[in-house]
Fold this protein.
Amino acid sequence: MSPAAVAGYDRIGSSALVHTAQAVAAEALRVPFREARARVADDGHGALAVEITAPLTVPVLGSHATPDEPVTTSAHRARATIAERLRTITGRQVERVTVTFSSSIVDTPRRVR
């Protein structure tokens, strides 16, 4: 049985949009949630403009592990992932995603117990 139509509208508050963008960015960039910062603005036509500031994840120095791809390629892929995931979650079009790497953190391998 489908729900009956009810008058009104649904809206996602700005705080919810920012925290959602922060979570999606942290996942896409492989950084802790608390390290990613997000700003979200409406472009005036219903689409979102997202600005992400996060550290760049680098391999452990001396481990001889080299990234599979250049940083710029990773950033482009992360931007596309962030835009798509936000569109899927919120139902809003994402017009622009800007990623700024503000520092770097070491990607330490996690132990499996």
Remarks:
- The chain has a mean pLDDT of 87.
- The longest helix spans residues 71-90.
- Residues 14-60+69-107 form a domain with the GMP Synthetase; Chain A, domain 3 fold (CATH 3.30.300.20).
- The helical segments are 14-29, 71-90.
